[in-house]
Amino acid sequence: TGQELTADFDARIAAHQRIEPRDWMPEGYRSTLVRQIAQHAHSEIIGMQPEGDWLTRAPSLRRKAILLAKVQDEAGHGLYLYAAAETLGVDRADLTQRLIEGRQKYSSIFNYPTLTFADVGVIGWLVDGAAICNQVPLCRSSFGPYARAMVRVCKEESFHQRQGYELLLQMMAGTPAQRTMVQDAVDRWWWPSLMMFGPPDADSPNTRQSMAWGIKRDTNDELRQKFVDMSVPQAVALGVTLPDPDLAWNAERGHHDFGAVDWAEFKRVVSGGGQCNAERVSRRRAAHEEGAWVREAAAAYAAKHQGTGQG
Ligand code: 3HC
């Protein structure tokens, strides 16, 4: 009966067992996962644009090769996540349509412009650093395909963060102009990176249920705090100042206190009013439309060679 199925599902969640695609699951569990995994995938794909803008302008062949590898990785992360979403009965073409029509979200962080090459380093250090803080716990998410996708994503994210930090160390050892570029990029990306973790727990409609279902293992504020605590010593080692005068170690709490996030800016960017929202979505639409012939050719080839073993 429905009650027995629900009781069995709840018992598996309580025992921290994985839920697999063929297992019975409450409709709300499925729809929350589709929402979160699809938006996570959209974020990876949209996230290729800000750094992709610097591929043709990287200052050296080495930097170009590293950046190319990172941008390709993000495409792969999107692929793993769309594949994980499809185990829940949705289709990636439909999810892409929802993204393009603004019916599904992607991370606010990618609606900020990358003004100098130092932004590429700061994105690696802070944005991928925040992503690591958020994605490591997701390796223990209760839904099997999502958790398994995260294991590989996290391995690649640590390369992303390390290459960004190394790029910044090099620039900080460079000219005063390079050091100024790095500080300027830190000033522009610090607060938007804190917004990646979502609204405060008190304003998060999904956190409580997602924690109960083991989809999230930590709350938005817990992960944001962890990220701040991780970033402060890294900023000191780099020789940059984080743009928050209220940032201070609180020995009683054993954490850093930090200033108020501008949630009005967060809401504006999430609802489409950021600096790059229109550009990011229209470029995604253009890529989808211009790439239609590739999809059609691949489908025609597959149909022609169905069952011949060639492919
Ligand atoms: N940007 C855009 N929308 C956001 C957001 C952000 N930074 N933070 C929250 N939101 C949205 C939520 O999606 C939700 O809207 P919805 O119900 O329409 O989906 C609403 O704001 C309320 O937020 P909640 O906290 O209640 O929502 P969640 O429980 O889903 O928590 C989240 C938000 C922490 C982002 C969670 O969805 C999550 O952990 N997602 C997986 C990780 C992810 O998507 N990371 C995005 C970064 S991309 C990335 O890491 C790529 C790397 O290579 C840089």
TrEMBL record:
InterPro entries: Aromatic_CoA_ox/epox, Ferritin-like, Ferritin-like_SF, PaaA, PaaA_PaaC. GO terms for molecular function: phenylacetyl-CoA 1,2-epoxidase activity. One of its GO terms (biological process) is phenylacetate catabolic process. It comes from the Bacteria. GO terms for cellular component: cytosol. Pfam families: PaaA_PaaC. PANTHER family: 1,2-PHENYLACETYL-COA EPOXIDASE, SUBUNIT A, PHENYLACETIC ACID DEGRADATION PROTEIN PAA. This is Phenylacetic acid degradation protein PaaA/phenylacetate-CoA oxygenase, PaaG subunit. It comes from Nocardiopsis ansamitocini. The lineage of its organism: Bacteria, Bacillati, Actinomycetota, Actinomycetes, Streptosporangiales.
